[in-house]
């Protein structure tokens, strides 16, 4: 009787296949860990950007009214702007807020300095109403703040005024107004 032939090379091919399989699994595991790390980092960046965008879009100051004082001689130079926070806004630091005020021939930028008070380069504030989250130097939820400033020059009748309140975070508040044709009263309402 003839002896059956035994092939010894089957074990060698199985070990080679096993080594290749393990190498493929290791490469796939490394690639998966790199992908997971990248997606985690991108997710964190997306959340941060989303929060910043939400703060920029939803936050801001709302102008209630704007008036000029001493219009009895036909001109006004001192201005008052009553403001409050818009809905869902975080408190806004007035020291980080810039106001631009433009008339026909002048343009000025005003910043908040509690030491100087109201001038042609700074604005002053008075709290008409203090909310529960009141903090001096900020517009917080529930506050009504009067912003006072002086124009570079006296503004006459029928003149266009452009006021922009620019907080560090939040939307820019534009207010365009025209002075009345005839100004004879002490307080002249300019907006709304």
Please provide a written account of the structure.
It is a single chain. The chain is of the alpha+beta class. It folds into 2 domains: 9-58; 60-191, Immunoglobulin-like. Helix content is 26%, strand content 38%. It has one helix at residues 9-58; strands at residues 61-69, 76-85, 92-93, 98-102, 107-112, 122-129, 138-139, 144-155, 160-166, 173-178, 187-191. The strands form 2 sheets. Strands 10-9-4-5-6-8-2-1-11 form a 9-stranded mixed sheet, with no helix packed on it. Strands 3-7 form a two-stranded antiparallel ribbon. Strand 4 (98-102) and strand 5 (107-112) form a beta hairpin. The mean pLDDT is 87.
CATH fold node name of the largest domain: Immunoglobulin-like
Q: What's the average pLDDT?
A: 87
Distance between the termini: 115 Å
Number of helices: 1
According to DSSP, the number of beta strands is: 11
Question: Do you know the CATH architecture of the largest domain?
Answer: Sandwich
Strand content: 35-45%
CATH class of the largest domain: Mainly Beta
Q: What is the string of helix and strand elements?
A: HEEEEEEEEEEE
Number of domains: 2
> In which order are the strands of the major sheet placed?
10-9-4-5-6-8-2-1-11
Summarize the amount of helix as a percent range.
25-40%
Could you describe the largest sheet, including whether it forms a barrel?
9 strands, mixed
Low-pLDDT ranges? none
Radius of gyration: 34 Å
How does the helix and strand content classify structurally? Answer: alpha+beta
Shape: rod-shaped
């Amino acid at each position: 009787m003839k002896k059956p032939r035994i092939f010894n090379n089957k074990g060698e091919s199985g070990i080679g296949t096993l080594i290749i399989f393990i190498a493929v699994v290791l490469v796939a595991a490394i690639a998966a860990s790199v992908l997971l790390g990248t997606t985690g980092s991108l997710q964190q960046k997306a959340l941060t950007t989303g929060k910043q965008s939400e703060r920029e879009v939803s936050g801001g100051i709302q102008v209630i009214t704007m008036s000029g004082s001493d219009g009895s001689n036909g001109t006004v130079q001192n201005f008052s702007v009553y403001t409050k926070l818009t809905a869902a806004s975080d408190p806004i630091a007035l020291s980080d807020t810039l106001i631009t005020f433009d008339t026909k021939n002048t343009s000025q930028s005003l910043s908040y300095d509690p030491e100087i008070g109201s001038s042609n380069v700074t604005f002053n504030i008075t709290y008409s109403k203090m909310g529960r989250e009141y903090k001096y130097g900020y517009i917080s939820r529930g506050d009504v703040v009067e912003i006072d400033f002086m124009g570079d020059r006296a503004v006459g009748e029928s003149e266009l005024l452009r006021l922009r309140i620019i907080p560090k975070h939040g939307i820019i508040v534009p207010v365009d107004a025209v002075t009345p044709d005839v100004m004879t009263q002490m307080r002249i309402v300019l907006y709304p």
